[in-house]
Amino acid sequence: MSKKINDVSQLPEWFDIEPYTQWRDKDPHRAVCAIYGRIYTSNFIRSIPHDYTGPLLYDSTISSIFSRMADASKAPLDYDGMGIAGELYAAEQRHRLGEDEFAEMEAGDDSSDAFVEARKVVKRIVGDNFGVSPHSNVRFVTMWDAMAAMKENSALIERIEKAASCLSEERGWDIEDVRHVMFSHVSLEDLNDFSYVNINGTSTIEVRVEGIRRYLLKNCSNKFNVSCVKPSEVKKLFEYRAAAYFDLTIWASLTRSKITAKCMASALFPHDDKFGELEMRPSRPVGKFFRRLESEKEYMLKLMKKAEELDSLNF
User: Fold this and answer.
1) Domain ranges of the chain
2) Biggest CA-to-CA distance, the chain
3) Sign (positive/negative) of CA torsion 148, 153, 155, 158?
4) Using one digit for the tens of pLDDT, what is the confidence trace for 1-14?
5) How many other C-beta atoms are found inside a 10 Å radius of the C-beta of residue 120?
6) Is residue 236 a contact partner of residue 287, using CB atoms and an 8 Å limit?
7) Per-residue pLDDT tens over the stretch 195-247
8) Distances in Å between the alpha carbon of 197 and those of 132, 151, 240?
9) Are 280 and 265 in contact (CB under 8 A)?
């Protein structure tokens, strides 16, 4: 049975709304990512089954997470919250598998050593070509990318190969010429939504960047369209203190508590009568905004993309 939190005096000692209000000088994209991390963590907690025979999480895990949250609350928009989600996942696995099986799983995970050794070997093979970071948003295409894309498009490749062979035999044309024309008109994409763009290697960096910009605007405007999201919606994340809201939501979930609308309003807006208990209802602007953040992942991702376009939050 959940404990009802009616007053701000019942909230954790580390919670202070003041740091959450200091957002105008923050980097827009980084600050929005910090909020996204909290939403991700909050949703993950809700996905953990609550029908365990024992406690949901170990006391040591709870203490560690609350310590993280206390540290993060001092500079909330500089902390992404993903570390908490990772610790929660490990705790959930430990509880589900049991200590012995979880310890065996952890002991058998030598992926870190494997990655280090694999990097050393391939570096000896490719020499100066080594150094591509696989985790960057913009990077050179790797051989793994190409092989994965070929595998994922294997059915399409087979269809085009058959069509090229038939056309070549029917018209008496060179098979390689036909294959070249056909495959040259099919863009290479994979299931992870990556796009591969071929850039003239002899041009300057400025020319390449402008060429990519024009290409994306012409061919990918619908795919990356965030025109439906306004800068004012990004601003709501901070005006409504979304980071504080989700920190308190995470805390309430972990302590099996329920914060009343009146208490939440008082915690988020202690000196603003405009945002009272009624505004926290799902049918009102603030409550509706929070519900949308929780339930519509695509909307939050669009807010993140829109934040990348902003130079500052001072508007």
Assistant:
1) 3-107+229-309
2) 85
3) negative
4) 678 999 999 999 99
5) 10
6) no
7) 677 776 667 888 878 887 777 777 665 555 656 788 999 999 999 999 999 99
8) 16, 19, 39
9) yes
Confidence of residue 121 (pLDDT cuts 50, 70, 90): confident
| Residue 29 · residue 308 · CB < 8 Å | yes
47, HSE (Cβ side, Cα atoms, 13 Å): 12
* Both structure tokens of 284: 């009102």
Both tokens assigned to 285:
């602007």
For 131, residues 6+ apart whose C-beta sits below 8 A from its C-beta are: none
Q: For the whole model, what pTM was predicted? A: 0.63
Q: Would you state the structure tokens that stand for residue 20, as one six-digit string?
A: 């959450």
Q: Which residues contact 144 (CB under 8 A, 6 or more apart)?
A: 134
Tokens of 147: 């092989």
Q: Do residues 149 and 188 lie in contact, with contact meaning Cβ atoms separated by under 8 Å?
A: yes
